[in-house]
Specification:
Helices cover about 40% and strands about 25% of the residues. By secondary structure, it is α+β, with helices and mostly antiparallel strands. It has a single domain, classed as 2-Layer Sandwich (Beta Polymerase, domain 2). Strand 3 and strand 4 form a beta hairpin.
Amino acid sequence: MAVEQAQKLTGPRRALEMALAAARVADENHGTDVVVLDMRELTQMFDYFVLVTGRSRRQIHSIGDEIDRKLQREHGERRLGIEGYDESHWVLLDYGAVVIHIFDAPTRDYYSLEDLWAGAKRVPVEFSTNGAAT
């Protein structure tokens, strides 16, 4: 999606496009268990969570860096904040309406955000490389 097209989208539609783009980038970079959660009915703080598992520190960094590039280049979005990059067990990328969580497997299992936010609806995502449609 071109920046001009992406910037014409507003509100929840724009946030959804960002979340789906981030999920696809994670999949293309061999992230596993990629899930998009629609948080709009549960909180006013953000619209979508993207959850991803990486197998190594290098992969977690690569996924986060590529998501940053994609959202900035094709959606004109700059990240508002980042947490956990140095430790690399759980990297959080904050884009305001979309929050991306990239975990190593033990950390994802421990915090179990899917269970914590069990009331959130899963958003279907079509992947082209790593996984089947969710």
